[in-house]
Amino acid sequence: MMKHQLRATIQTKILLLALAGLVLCALAFGGLCLHTTDKVVYEGTEKNLHSLTNIETIKINNRLKSVEQYVNTLNIAITGMLDSLGQLTDEKLLQEFTGKCSELIRLTIGNTEKAVAAYLRFNPEFTPPTSGVFMAMTATDHELRFTEPTDFSKFSPDDTAHVGWYYTPIRTKRPIWMPPYMNKNIGIYMISYVIPIFKFDKAIGVVGVDVDFDYITREIASIQILDNDYAFLADRYGNILFHPSIPKGRQFTQPENTLLIQSKLANGMDLSFVIPKSSISANRDNLIKNLILITMLILVAFIFASLIFSSTLTKSLKILTDYANRLIDGKMSTNLNIRRNDEIGDLAKSFVNAKMRIAETMGHMKGLAFKDPITNVRNRNSLDHYINEFNIKVSSNEIHSYGVIVASIDDLFKIKNSHGNSKAINLLRVASKLICTTFDHSPVFRANEDEFVIILMSDDLKNCTELQEKLKNSAEKTLTAEHPWEQVKLSLGIAICNDALSSSLSEQLVIAENNMLKEREDLE
């Protein structure tokens, strides 16, 4: 009986001690909360607000950067198709080149969100004043359609409202975001991103895209972080471009008892967030009450729950971090295995979707950057990239022997000078088809204007002699063609490397080039 009472007393003392400890902790923690609530609420919330506003800024910047990326891609493609100034000064060639550019814009403009116009305009100093491409959204069905380009002869170069989008980037010689303006040609308030095109030491023209400025302002107006906050847009000089209550053109004065967070957009504008301090501390009193009421429960339960939760959360975050690092390294084949029905699971799905979009964009850009627009074989950029990858494979003993053929179209420049660029392009395509048909198991590159490079491996390397003869015979058969631009005359140079580690691909290219030049001299 006494032992039972003794045990009960000890249990009671331990329970009372535990309860006293919990009460003391609760009182101490509650007192600390009362003392530091204001500081924690303001400082912690301000940090979170900066993170949230950064996210909103990134969303807007991503839309602007997608416009920049698209116009840059158009600029690369168009300058790549422009082989001579004669394509612009000759009426027939200008019409043909304009048609190709129109088709390029028509096929790709859908990738740019909320674009209201896309255009390619040529220098009116040596082309007609309405030359170029202008695709704009119609007022009736809101579809992008080709319309008559602006007639430069009707406006002064200083008329910003009508032709500022052309002359401003030409004068500055650099890509620019135009300030928001009302385009009187199509009646839309817009912002434009324009890149001047320079080639052959001349201003060729501009290529650009117009985006509905109301689309940007609607995005900004929809931002809601806390109660009664808002965002506004100003130019680099502080003049209001969009504000819920202040007219455009005025300066902003920060209201009292507000927090102002400013961010810089990709087009040079300032995106600002105004958050009332009353919204930050609105839940302070409720927070204090709730902390006092549930502190003891949290102290007991949080230790056990946090250990379990933090373990699973940390594991998932480590997996996501590793996955992100692999994506940064370009390892698109990496798989993500996270099955969670919460925000981490949503984040994992977003990572997977981002990987698919990145891979798609990389593939699209790689195709534009690595393909020759005339012959559809790989271009010089692709050859340089291939050489780097080839050297890696050689160093890892994946490649032991290989060969290189340099094929030169002997009469290309003669045809170009005598019959024009379009006939030279025809000769290039005929020659490219012969080469690709003969070496259908080997990568073919257009290394420069009149030379192709073929990398031989496996069966094509073993049969290189027969394949060379086949190519020469195929070229000789074209000599009976009616037109000289259908007659292919080739000079070939070959280099065989039986030990890939003994000589680099670049060195073998030089050898093949020299052998080709020697054969050309012998033929002459």
What does this structure look like?
This protein has helices spanning 2-81, 86-89, 91-108, 160-172, 213-221, 277-280, 284-328, 343-370, 380-395, 412-419, 421-438, 458-462, 464-477, 505-523, and strands at residues 115-122, 132-137, 144-146, 176-183, 188-199, 202-212, 230-234, 240-242, 258-264, 270-276, 402-409, 444-448, 451-456, 490-497. It is of the alpha+beta class and 524 residues long. It has a 6-stranded antiparallel sheet with strand order 3-2-1-6-5-4, with helices on both faces. A 4-stranded antiparallel sheet has the order 8-7-10-9. A hairpin with a 6-residue loop joins strand 2 and strand 3. Helix 1 (2-81) packs across helix 7 (284-328). The protein is flat, with a radius of gyration of 34 Å. The N and C termini lie far apart (123 Å).
Question: What tags apply to this protein structure?
Answer:
single chain; 524 residues; four-stranded antiparallel beta sheet; 14 strands; 54% helix
Short description:
This protein has 524 residues and is an alpha+beta fold. The protein is built from 14 helices and 14 strands. The termini are far apart.
Topology:
Elements: H1 2-81, H2 86-89, H3 91-108, E1 115-122, E2 132-137, E3 144-146, H4 160-172, E4 176-183, E5 188-199, E6 202-212, H5 213-221, E7 230-234, E8 240-242, E9 258-264, E10 270-276, H6 277-280, H7 284-328, H8 343-370, H9 380-395, E11 402-409, H10 412-419, H11 421-438, E12 444-448, E13 451-456, H12 458-462, H13 464-477, E14 490-497, H14 505-523
Antiparallel strand pairs: 1-2, 1-6, 2-3, 4-5, 5-6, 7-8, 7-10, 9-10, 11-13, 11-14, 12-13
Helix pairs in contact: 1-3, 1-7, 7-8, 10-11, 11-13
